[in-house]
Design goal:
By secondary structure, chain A is of the alpha+beta class. Chain A is about 15% helix and about 45% strand. Chain B folds into two domains: about 5-25 and about 35-170 and about 285-370, Rossmann fold (3-Layer(aba) Sandwich); about 175-285, Rossmann fold (3-Layer(aba) Sandwich), CATH 3.40.50. Chain B is globular, with a radius of gyration of 22 Å. The chains are: A alpha+beta, B alpha/beta.
Chain lengths: ~375, ~400
Amino acid sequence: MSELKLLEAIQKQECERRGRKGSAEDAEGIQNIGSSLRPLRNLCALCVRLFCFSLLIGTSAHAKDTGRIFVSSEKDNTITVIDSAKGDLVASPVVCKRPRHMQLTPDRSQLYVVCSDEHRLLVWDIAGSKAVAKFELGEDPEAFDLSPDGKTMYVSNEEDSALTAFDLATRKKVYEVKIGGEPEGVKVSADGKLVYVTSEVANVVHVIDTAARKVLKNVPVGKRPRRFLLTPTGELWVTNELDGTVSVIRTSDHTVQGTINFLPQGMRREDVSPVGMALAPDGKTAYVGLGKANHVAVVDVATRNVKGYILAGKRAWGLAVSRDGKRLYVANGLSDDLTIVDTQAMKAIKTVKVGRVPYGVVIDD
Amino acid sequence: MTEGGRAFREARRTLLLAGAAACLPLGAQPQRGQPQRAQPPFRLGLLTQGDDERYSPQVLLRGFPDAPGGRSEPAAQIALNDSLVTLQMAGRNGAQLVALEAPTAAEVPASLQQLLQQGVQHVVLELPAAGVAAVAAAARGREVVLFNAAAPEDALRAAQCAPNLFHTLPSHAMQMDAVAQLLVARKWNRPLVLVGPTPGDRLLQAAWQRSAKRFGVRPIAERPFKLSNDPRERDLGNVRLLTSDREYDAVVVLDADGEFASGVPYRTVLPRPVLGSNGLVAQAWSPFHERNGGPQLTRRFLRRASRTMTGYDWATWMAARCAAEVASAYIKAGLAQQVQALRQGAVSVDGYKGQRLSFRGWDGQLRQPLMLAHGGGIGDMAPLEGFLHPRITLDTLGYDAPETGCRAG
């Protein structure tokens, strides 16, 4: 945030300086050039002022709560930017090779994007709509999470079967912990003391102690565990893509307390392949993308009952809920689009075309 | 094997065990909170046959589709590595691959005996059909589970089946069903069929005829071919003469050897697709498979074996994964219970094909999607969309329960 304020201040100064210069020239112009050119000069000065003004407005409006939705697309190296108010595509800048997992910085001014095929992290400035930094993340990074203080990033490295901790200030690797094959989902506990990582091959959730830098426990879950959700009630939910279920782990003792099953009407069990999840802001409702079953399940967190299914696109897997809880955004991996859902009505209201093989969704609201 | 090769193999085994140690959580065995006595490492046997022509350097060099790309031992190593955390959580102290090569089919039973004496209970068979049959007969009543990973012959899943014999490689029937499904889905119902003269070709022909009938494909003709340049029999050896019919939707070529089939695409009189033994080929794996985590497995294999992964490598990998999975899930149970669990589909493994894969109870065949692959990609995945089954869609490929010829299951 401080960086952004600085940027604003500099821009403001620059505008004021240019504005004054414009006026001075204006004054000179009256005497030297004659009256015929005056309107033009005035116009120019006005243009400069207006430009600066709009820049300022633009910056402050973009700085926070832009209402922009960002969707990463694995196959065409772009991020699609969508205006959440209108549900229209704004831009789709090419960012890096195979952008996948994304997350906002704690101050919400920047977007961290994992570029799997570049083995790097991209820092995307939301206000400036441009990349401001890139740094190495190790072999095949897939998903990540941040420590509560925003200083450390924990990344799963698919090829190395490791969880790597990076210091974001120095952009250096701090340590790595060897874990089971093809680690995927990463979640940091609220106190930052533990990191949870799934291993798609070993079918476990590794509980890693960040102080000891060691695996504390392996919790066996379903087949091909993918992503996490931490509920306010101290439950860790993990999607098991091939079992078509969600395992509920109690975080106090790291034992599996239950399994949630899904089967939308008319779909086959083998099509139910949950990956992405999102929690409503009140923490009472969870949304589970059911992948090839093309639906999103709406689950009551307290009772773990499935309240209903929302039809989305093909392979509904990347999910995000707006801050007011009214909209759910679903990235559909096999139909290259984003479904916008009215959560109250539990119905899709719009589908927006995005890049090829959309992966994750982040909302800046 | 050379001295250097042996040393390398030993080194890799040591690495395997070191990897297991690295994954061990704090406080050795936290599962169920009780310290368990560490079980010995899981030992997996891999049985190969020295005179298996398919693995001779000359045949490997030809590189025809749906043939082994080389020995699949690296795939077994990868699978054990992938299974380390699971094995270690079950209390197994790592994993070990015991690879053994029998010079000929006659020595295969003796090699099995040797493995059994070393305490191996799970054996992956990289053998031709005769070798598999010999091992299955020798293993009757013994404490061993066999996984056939290199013989697609239907007879092994029917008359020659055995209760403890499982198959991870798709059968001929499954491959031909996949081809027939594609023809029907594309509305290419009237293909021209070319069949070779060898016993292997006859097996493919039998499988094809069953599939064509099953899915309502009506070939316009079934014509014998012969690998020959003899002008006196050019009507048998010349693809243009063989394909000079007025109309056909596609050409299905059935050629176990592969040499004739490799000359069929782009040589037909009419511009029609070629399927079967060349062109579009149904196989267990293709390096072009890019969903369901496929590229990761393909890359792991490429790094270890320095070649691309074939369906045969996948079958070995899958067999080793299944063996490790059942051995950890039923660690306290006897082998009979492990066999039962596999038969009942209680054990399922992720094969990177987007579904949990399990074995069919009636003939021990692993049900699985097949890739209809060509030289530059994947045409489609079978079962194709629209082919349904009352219980499991995957059972539209191959012999279903009511059709099985296996009486030992």
